[in-house]
Specification:
Layout lengths: L3 E4 L8 H14 L4 E6 L4 H7 L8 H5 L10 E3 L4 E4 L8 H6 L7 H7 L7 E6 L5 H9 L2 E6 L3 H21 L4 E7 L6 H13 L13 H8 L4 H4 L4 H14 L1
Parallel strand pairs: 1-5, 1-6, 2-4, 2-5, 6-7
Antiparallel strand pairs: 3-4
Helix pairs in contact: 1-11, 5-6
The chain binds adenosine-5'-diphosphate and magnesium ion.
The site of magnesium ion has 5 residues, from α1.
Length: 249
């Protein structure tokens, strides 16, 4: 795993945020120094971790160049890692960045100063392949793609791969797709068929620890706790813990 990894899928509700914060919490629990960057204007990761707390300094200020990344970092004792929070203002940032020189690498430059303070930086992306996500891609060495296994998820993966190809050709940055994360898994025939198609049609590995569908995952968000604290013995909690180990290998 490279030192910066982005959780990417332009589809919403596929458990990007859920896997990002729980895998990050598990890595922190296992002794790694972790930073999570919330790059989604909807701020789901920030909300799940900190509840309704408001932050003076966010990733927005870092991207507009008004603040050093270090000054936007807040620590979460419960999750065991550092966070650069997001805010709703981020929804307007693409317009601001569009006219800036080197607009695709603003996040990369911002994180460069603090990168060495961490074993790993996790970027939780928004459901889009716009300039914010391109910034995450340029900053990252590796990406992982969380999906809910359904027919349409295959088309979505093709779009992500196309974007990676364009970035490689246009900007000379090669990104390694470490794997696909199967989330909200149910043991059904059609689900198995989709996963099978995935394994045969693409060269991307699929992580072997699927995260089962469980209402406890939703409860953990509401309680602002990682699964390893809220319900470590729950099958989804165990799968997330095992996934963290699998991803690190
Ligand atoms: P994304 O970041 O891709 O939009 P989220 O992580 O916010 O997705 O998840 C979307 C919704 O699905 C949330 O309400 C979350 O609690 C729920 N969810 C995520 N993973 C699971 C799971 N394994 N089982 C049940 N619900 C889940
Ligand atoms: Mg999200």
């Amino acid at each position: 795993m490279g030192s910066i990894v982005a959780f990417i899928n332009q589809k919403g509700g596929v458990a990007k945020t859920t896997t990002a914060i729980n895998v990050a919490a598990q890595w922190a629990h296992n002794g790694k120094k972790v930073l999570l960057v919330d790059l989604d204007p909807q701020s789901s990761a920030t909300r799940s971790i900190f509840g309704d707390m408001d932050f003076e300094n966010t990733i927005y200020d870092v991207l507009t160049g008004e603040l050093a990344a270090e000054e936007a970092v807040v620590a979460s004792e419960t999750f065991g890692f550092d966070v650069i929070p997001s805010e709703i203002m981020l929804s307007g940032i693409e317009i601001i960045l569009a006219s800036k020189f080197g607009r695709e690498s603003i996040l990369k430059r911002g994180l460069a100063e603090i990168k060495d303070n961490y074993d790993i930086i996790v970027i939780d992306c928004s459901p889009s392949l716009g300039l914010l996500t391109v910034n995450a891609l340029i900053a990252s060495k590796d990406i992982v793609i969380p999906i809910c296994p359904e027919y349409f998820s295959l088309k979505g993966i093709e779009l992500i791969l196309e974007t990676l190809k364009n970035i490689h050709q246009g900007l000379g940055h090669k990104i390694d797709v470490r794997g696909i994360i199967i989330s909200k898994y149910r043991n059904r025939k059609i689900v198995e068929k989709v996963i099978n198609d995935l394994r045969t049609n693409y060269t991307i590995p699929v992580f072997s620890n699927y995260i089962p569908d469980s209402i406890v995952v939703e409860e953990a968000h509401h309680n602002h706790k990682p699964m390893l604290q809220y319900s470590p013995k729950n099958p989804a909690g165990q799968a997330l813990a095992n996934l963290a180990v699998e991803m690190w290998a």
